[in-house]
Description:
Elements: H1 2-7, H2 12-30, H3 35-47, H4 53-69, E1 84-93, E2 96-105, E3 110-117, H5 120-130, H6 135-149, H7 151-154, E4 158-163, H8 166-174, H9 180-195, E5 199-204, H10 213-216, H11 221-227, E6 233-234, H12 239-246
Parallel strand pairs: 1-4, 3-6, 4-5
Antiparallel strand pairs: 1-2, 2-3
Helix pairs in contact: 2-3, 3-4, 6-8, 6-9
Amino acid sequence: MPEFKAAGRLSLHEAQVVHGLLRYACGFMAGRHLHQVCAEIMNLGLNGRSSRLAQVADFCDYAADMLNRSKPRKLTALGERRPFLIFTDGSWENGFAGLGAVLLDTATNQKWVLCGEVPDCLLTRWKQQVGEQLICQIELYAMVVVRWMFRDLLTNRRSIWWVDSEAARFSAIKGLSPSPAMRWLVRELYSFEVDSPTFSWIERVPSFSNPADGPSRAMPEEVMSLLDIHSFSNFEHPPELIQRLLSA
């Protein structure tokens, strides 16, 4: 990576070579956390001369950090096969950036309903980057925070996610987005795979079928009644995560 950073550019051939090596590491040693690095490096190579110097330097620093943190993935034949079911949602109405989530652990029958809103400092930063239409960032941020809050419980577990934003869903699946704010959120989502690996599947759910829709609008009562839950939890916003997203 140092030579690419010094050159300030990455040719398609160079990107293909490094991509092949990283794909090998993903498949045979490291697991999914390098998938997002693979996606970004091919995108830089395809853009070729149009990639800005700062963009290449930022990617090289990020990729080097992910590689330094990389360690062999451990698999066990005795792991829990029953999945975590996770529904997330975000709302953006009249300046209110709501967050909602519903989680069910089918192995223990534990259930959670989460409500909250995006910190103002992130909304301000995202508006500077993409303007007033922030629903995609909010939806993806809900996924990132849930992944952070439940990282210990999700370690080495199967999880099925339902998201009602196609932009957030495809960014999380592909590991890539043309939006700088979305790209940094996806980086955070994949960074959890280093110390808290999981086996995840991300699916689409229409808003009217999403149990997290009510909590994202500060109305969790209906889903709490359906799940026989008597209290909801608040979304947590770790300072270290917020700081990384603000520095994007």
